[in-house]
Every structure is written in structure tokens, then in C-alpha cells.
User: Which sequence fits this backbone?
């Protein structure tokens, strides 16, 4: 975080390496650590007390673990094998204990000699290796180990109470080797320049950065660790929030055309047509949006709302307000199916107000144009003409809207649906279509906990729609354990038949299409473990038509079909001609068929929590109750089953998004990959540290308002430069 000469020093240098060249190479390749500063900011994951050893009973399978334990006994066995047919093979079995559990270590062949001499009963050591199972018992095969020898004058109490840092490690570099490397560079911590303003640090009683680095790597007490973590969390939260506050500050300086709807114009005519009243939430959020549109700076707003909370209605009213004010509005959808669906439903909602320039069109009418990549040449030419002449006030489309050829007469508002599927570059390209930056409204049906919204979408103001419109029905969700209870699956198909007999329809969702070439080399570990690929739409549809759903009209829908075929399938399903639609997740967002009441999700454990919640939102959209069945073959105690139980237990998307986040970890909040792999947050946890993030946001906003260029805070500037390397800087810029 701190690019200060001493901390900037590379770990690996041609002439003199700070560490051994081999160690430096592994650190660069496997842990992404290149400089002294990187290594100082590679914090311990946890600390072991020699006296309170790890619970050996709780070790996770197939993971690299580090445990501190005592040797209980060691036995050397001889055995015959292909390599040693005369019974000369040797196997050393060592049992270690932590007072709570026991664990077997095993060494073979020439590898037995050193541990046989060193690992005597009563010896304490740190062991690292991969947990596996042999004969139904957990074991570590050929673990690396480091003997823990207390100094002669050290009392048993101080020896047992010492805190041993356990670092995030890899199979190629054990935790204690990283620890030794950190000790080598620790003196450089004194030169770390502090990014926090003194007033902030003193006001919150936080220790200085050099002291925090010392305490996190070499704590004497648990209080040291607490002090260090409290301080380092603030660094991460504050520097990140300053980056976002500078974005917001820069955006606020941009000019935009204020768009105020004219009285008794298109918006009023539309509201008069509505057969229902808007919910309180819709009215409140609409007011926030209209207030933003009326200013001379571009609106940047994130609209979060549960599936079916009426976001499209709010967005449409914003678009109509802009058309009223003489501008154009564009709505961007992530898929063609969704763009077509939005176009159909908006034209339906507007009626004759969408027939601008046509006979029978209302007085204030405008034209609503669709533009997608698969349109024919003539339709495309007409759509482009509608945009450049302002004949079309509203355009709905996919990425095709971003192409260079597309010109607007006066683009005033961009609405982006399903932000997480939409690259920042695309948002940026569309912004460039206006004479001045257009206003921006980003919609998502994936509920995002408040702190994540502040961290990931920190440059957007947030509005939340949390009540469902009247008339939406409850959805019952159940887990169907197909392997433990096959008759439950048979009953699931009976339930689908019952829904169809009652005049309703159903979805069956599968993780895969079924016409892919599966590359045997690319099999995932999960597939290996389960010995079968995920269920596929084409296979399942075939089995259902010939078996449990014989006689019903079953059709398939997936992303590789021709757009016209997809549209035809959706139209038949919407018209009620198809009873059961077997589909991939293409139906996840935006598909609206109120008569569909049941959904069966096959291999539900292959989907994420938020995705299951999105899919489930496709049923129960009419007056009849919805039913969602989550089919899985995972055993009852597995984390996958617990995840499915959580989804079945609540319809609250915000609650589920917290569960999802806790399971996936934060991901790199600044990067586009929300994958949970590499994270720029090392000690800050977005869910637990809600208070720190909220306070850091306020502090950052105040600091940036007083000194946008941070001229008085060189340490903060340095930290920002380190956080926002090229790629991230661009990511934030494109917001």
C-alpha cells in the first residue's frame, strides 16, 4: 500500500535479493508478492497459541493446513510392495494430539529417516500439509514440519502462551517460511508513510502504521493483534472510500442538461392510464430520481429492488420524464431475450402513448424502438434513423446500442439493467453518446448489502425498493434430496403435473445445454468428485417428455438457439401453449409469465445463492401461489445442502445476499471479478465491518471536499497510487 523507497525494494533482484531467489520467485508467482511493502502487507490469517492447539477434529478436507501439536507416538512399519518386494518398504506412522483430537501423519520410503529421529513422543512441532482420508481417518501424508524448541530459560507458560502467526500459504511455501521472510523485512516497517490524516488517527485512538505492522506480525499479546487489526482495517476502508469519494467529486463537476418533465405532458398522460397506484416505495424512489434529473450534474444512481418490486415501472417513468423534457432515453439489457421482453412490456404499459407518429397515436406519444444485434438490415436501418431524428424518444437494446454507428439526437438518460452482467467499459461507451454526459440509472435485482453497495458501487447514490406490489403471491421453496430420497423427485414431477392440470405452467432449469463438447482435461474438481457432469437441458427435456411428463407440451430454451427461435419459444410459453419450459439460466432475469407457478431447479447445488433467488423470482408473479423445488444429490451435511436450505428458508434477498457473500468472501471489490479469489481487502470484511466502512465513507467525503487533490496528505496520495494501479484506476474512472 505504501510505495516508499524502502518498501518499494523488490524481493527478488539480480544482484542482491532481500530473500533467497527461490523463495522470492515462489512469493511472486504464487502469492503475488513482489516488494518489501507487499510482504509487510501479507498479514497472518490467524495465530496459534502453542498451549491451545488447533482443534484437530475440525480440519477441512483437501485443504492445506498448519497445525501446532505434540507427538503422542511414532511407529515404524515394514511392508512388501512392488518397489520393495522383500518386505523392505518402510512406513512411519506418527500420531499427534492437541488435547482435543488426534491426527495421523504418515511418511514413506527414504522420507522416514529424518522424522523417525526427530518426531519422538512429547516433541512439539508445527506441521503443514494437505488433509486427506485413509481408512476413514484423517491424515497428513509427508507433512512439512518445524520443531518448536523453547529456549532453556523460557518458562513453560511463556512458551505455551506465545502467539505464532499462521500466514496464507501455498503448497510450495509453508507458513513458517513466510514468517521467517517477514521477520527479515520487518525493520523496514519503520519507514512506512502513514496514509491516515493525524486528526483522524488521533480522534479514533488508532496506532501509527509502523507500530500496527510490527504488532500484526510479531504480537506479544492478543491486545496487540486487536490494535493492529483495528488500525489496518481503517487503512483499507479509508483509502478505498477516498478513491470513490474522488470519483463522486469529479462526477459532480461534470455538466449535464437538467431534465424536468413538463406539466400535463407524456408522464402525466401515462400516470393517468395506470390501472393501479404506485407503492409508497415506488413513489419515494421516483422522487429521488426526479430530483437528480432536475440538476445540472449527471445523476449516478443505483436502484436495487427485489425481483418483482416494480423497478421497470420506476425506470419507465424516469425515461418518460426525460422524453417530456425534450431528450431521449436508452435502456440497456444484458441479453436479447430480456431486451425483447422489456420492449414488449413497455409498449404494452404505454399503449397508444408508444405510437408516436402513427395513426391512432396519443397526443403526447413517442416511439419506442428496439435495437439488437440480430435484427435484419431493414429493421436496423429504420431503428438507427428513429434515433438520429429523435422520432424515437425511448430505445431498448443490447450491447448493439453501443456500436459506433449508433447516433442519438439528444441522449438524456441511460438505464442499465442488471449491472453485474454489464461491463464498465460498455457503460462508459454509452455515456459518450450524449452531447453532454447523460444521467445514469443502474438497476439490479440482486440485493446488495448496504456496505457492499458503499464499497463496490461507492460512486453511485443508492435507492432501494423493498416492498412488493399488491397482488404478488408467496413462493414456497423446498429442497428435494434426490439421492437420499428418490421418491421425493418422483413426487416433484407429480406436483408439476398437478400445476398444469390446474391450468398453470412450469419451468425446469438445468445448469448446462447438453450439446457442448466436454473437454476431459477441463473437468472441474467438483465433476471429478461427483463423477458425472451437470444435468443438461436437452437430455432432461427428452427424459421428461418420454417419462414423468409424457403427454404435456415440453419445450426447450437456451442461449445458443437462434434469437428468432428463442423469441418464438417465449411467445408460445407466454401464450400458454407450452406447459413446461426446460431452460438454462437465460430465464434468470426479466422473464415475466404470471401463469407460470412452479419451478424445478435440477442440480441446484451448482448455482450460487443469488442466482437461485433470481430464478425463483420467475414464479408466483400472478395471483396463484408459487412453488420452487431445489433438486440436489449432495449429502445432507455438505455445505452445498446448507446453502440450499438457507435459500428454501427465506424469501428475503438481502438476507440471502449476506449469506452468499459470507460464503464466497468479498472477491476483489474493486476488480470486475466478484469471484472471491484475490481480494484487495486483507483485514476488512465487508459484512462484519459495516460501521467502519460507513464512518470511513463520511471521513473520506469530508477530506476530499476540503482538499480534492489531497495536496496536504502525501501519505494518502501514495497509498492511493498503490491501491489504484492502472487497471483499477480505469475501472473506477469508468464507474
Assistant:
Amino acid at each position: 500500500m505504501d510505495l516508499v523507497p524502502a518498501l518499494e525494494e523488490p524481493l527478488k533482484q539480480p544482484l542482491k535479493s532481500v530473500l533467497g531467489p527461490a523463495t522470492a520467485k515462489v512469493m511472486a508467482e504464487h502469492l503475488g508478492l513482489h516488494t518489501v511493502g507487499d510482504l509487510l502487507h501479507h498479514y497472518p490469517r490467524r495465530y496459534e497459541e502453542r498451549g491451545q492447539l488447533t482443534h484437530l477434529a475440525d480440519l477441512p478436507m483437501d485443504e492445506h493446513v498448519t497445525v501446532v501439536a505434540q507427538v503422542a507416538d511414532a511407529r515404524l512399519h515394514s511392508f512388501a510392495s512392488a518397489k520393495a518386494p522383500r518386505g523392505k518398504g518402510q512406513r512411519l506412522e506418527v500420531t499427534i494430539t492437541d488435547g482435543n483430537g488426534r491426527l495421523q501423519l504418515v511418511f514413506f520410503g527414504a522420507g522416514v529417516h529424518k522424522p523417525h529421529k526427530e518426531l519422538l513422543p512429547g516433541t512439539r512441532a508445527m506441521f503443514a500439509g494437505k488433509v486427506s482420508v485413509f481408512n476413514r481417518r484423517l491424515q497428513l501424508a509427508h507433512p512439512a514440519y518445524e520443531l518448536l524448541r523453547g529456549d532453556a530459560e523460557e518458562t513453560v507458560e511463556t512458551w505455551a502462551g506465545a502467539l505464532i502467526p499462521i500466514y496464507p500459504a501455498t503448497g510450495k511455501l509453508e507458513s513458517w517460511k513466510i514468517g521467517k521472510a517477514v521477520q527479515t523485512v520487518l525493520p523496514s516497517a519503520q519507514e512506512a508513510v502513514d496514509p491516515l490524516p493525524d486528526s483522524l488517527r488521533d480522534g479514533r485512538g488508532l496506532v501509527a502504521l509502523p507500530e500496527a505492522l510490527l504488532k500484526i506480525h510479531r504480537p506479544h499479546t492478543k491486545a496487540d493483534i486487536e490494535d493492529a487489526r483495528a488500525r489496518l482495517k481503517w487503512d483499507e476502508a479509508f483509502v478505498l472510500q477516498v478513491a470513490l469519494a474522488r470519483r463522486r467529486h469529479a462526477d459532480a463537476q461534470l455538466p449535464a442538461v437538467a431534465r424536468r418533465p413538463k406539466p400535463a405532458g407524456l408522464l402525466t398522460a401515462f400516470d393517468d392510464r395506470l390501472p393501479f397506484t404506485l407503492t409508497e416505495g415506488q413513489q419515494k424512489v421516483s422522487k429521488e430520481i426526479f430530483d437528480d434529473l432536475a440538476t445540472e450534474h449527471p445523476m449516478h444512481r443505483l436502484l436495487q429492488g427485489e425481483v418483482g418490486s416494480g423497478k421497470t415501472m420506476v425506470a419507465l417513468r424516469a425515461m418518460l420524464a426525460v422524453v417530456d423534457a425534450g431528450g431521449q432515453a436508452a435502456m440497456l439489457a444484458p441479453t436479447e431475450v430480456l431486451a425483447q421482453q422489456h420492449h414488449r412490456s413497455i409498449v404494452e404499459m404505454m399503449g397508444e402513448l408508444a405510437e408516436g407518429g402513427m395513426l391512432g397515436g396519443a397526443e403526447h406519444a413517442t416511439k419506442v424502438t428496439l435495437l439488437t444485434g440480430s435484427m435484419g438490415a431493414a429493421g436496423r436501418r429504420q431503428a438507427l434513423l428513429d434515433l438520429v431524428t429523435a422520432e424515437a424518444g425511448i430505445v431498448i437494446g443490447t450491447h448493439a446500442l453501443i456500436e459506433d454507428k449508433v447516433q442519438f439526437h439528444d441522449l438524456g438518460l441511460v438505464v442499465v439493467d442488471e449491472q453485474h452482467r454489464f461491463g464498465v467499459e460498455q457503460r462508459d461507451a454509452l455515456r459518450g453518446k450524449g452531447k453532454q454526459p447523460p444521467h445514469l440509472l443502474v438497476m439490479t435485482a440482486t440485493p446488495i448489502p448496504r456496505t457492499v453497495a458503499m464499497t463496490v458501487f461507492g460512486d453511485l447514490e443508492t435507492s432501494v425498493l423493498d416492498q412488493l406490489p399488491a397482488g404478488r403471491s408467496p413462493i414456497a421453496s423446498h429442497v428435494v434430496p434426490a439421492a437420499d430420497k428418490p421418491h421425493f423427485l418422483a413426487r416433484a414431477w407429480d406436483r408439476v403435473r398437478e400445476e398444469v392440470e390446474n391450468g398453470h405452467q412450469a419451468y425446469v432449469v438445468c445448469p448446462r445445454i447438453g450439446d457442448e463438447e466436454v473437454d476431459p482435461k477441463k473437468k472441474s474438481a467438483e465433476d471429478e468428485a461427483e463423477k458425472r457432469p451437470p444435468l443438461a437441458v436437452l437430455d432432461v427435456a427428452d427424459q421428461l417428455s418420454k417419462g414423468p411428463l409424457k403427454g404435456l407440451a415440453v419445450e426447450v430454451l437456451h442461449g445458443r438457439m437462434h434469437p428468432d427461435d428463442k423469441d418464438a419459444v417465449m411467445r408460445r410459453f407466454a401464450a400458454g401453449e407450452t406447459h413446461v419450459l426446460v431452460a438454462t439460466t437465460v430465464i434468470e432475469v426479466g422473464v415475466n409469465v404470471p401463469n407460470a407457478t412452479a419451478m424445478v431447479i435440477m442440480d441446484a447445488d451448482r448455482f450460487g445463492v443469488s442466482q437461485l433467488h433470481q430464478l425463483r423470482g420467475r414464479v408466483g408473479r400472478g395471483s396463484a401461489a408459487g412453488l420452487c423445488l431445489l433438486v440436489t444429490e449432495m449429502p445432507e451435511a455438505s455445505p452445498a445442502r446448507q446453502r440450499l436450505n438457507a435459500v428454501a428458508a427465506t424469501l428475503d434477498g438481502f438476507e440471502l445476499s449476506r449469506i452468499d457473500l459470507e460464503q464466497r468472501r468479498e472477491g476483489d471489490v474493486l476488480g470486475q471479478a466478484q469471484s472471491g479469489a484475490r481480494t484487495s481487502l486483507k483485514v476488512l470484511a465487508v459484512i462484519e465491518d459495516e460501521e467502519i466502512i460507513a464512518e470511513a465513507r463520511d471521513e473520506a467525503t469530508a477530506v476530499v471536499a476540503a482538499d480534492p487533490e489531497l495536496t496536504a496528505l502525501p501519505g494518502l496520495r501514495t497509498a492511493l497510487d498503490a491501491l489504484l494501479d492502472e487497471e483499477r484506476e480505469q475501472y473506477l474512472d469508468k464507474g
Observations:
- The CA atoms of residues 242 and 700 lie 5 Å apart.
